[in-house]
Design brief:
111 residues, alpha+beta, Alpha-Beta Plaits, 4-stranded antiparallel β-sheet, 4 strands, 37% strand
């Protein structure tokens, strides 16, 4: 298996409609190759000194490490949360055809 710079980026968002809108915009900007939405998640976290318990959608974005800065900029513009989750998890291997597809569908040009 060849070396890859693919990453999976995790984020959460209030609902699946907002998730789809975010994914479509990131696809248009060629910052991601794919976004997968998992609705019905429950997040429990501390926010502004209180425990919050919210329903959310979890979004997995498939991209490459060189697109992270572009994603940061896009999240600042598009993501509705004050402090959006943006966690990039390195991919250590995978099917070469799939990894190649991620590369071909993303652009390293900062938008």
């Amino acid at each position: 298996m060849s070396h890859t710079d693919a990453v999976v980026v995790l984020t959460t968002i209030a609902n699946t409609d907002e998730a789809v809108n975010l994914i479509r915009e990131l696809l248009d900007r060629r910052l991601i190759a794919c976004g997968t939405v998992h609705g019905g998640a429950r997040s429990i976290y501390r926010w502004e000194g209180k425990i919050a318990d919210e329903q959310e959608a979890v979004v997995m974005l498939k991209t490459r490490s060189g697109c992270i800065e572009g994603l940061r900029r896009a999240f600042a513009e598009l993501h509705p949360y004050k402090v959006p989750e943006l966690l990039a998890i390195p991919v250590t291997g995978g099917l070469e055809r799939y990894l190649g597809w991620i590369n071909s569908e993303t652009s390293l040009t900062l938008s």
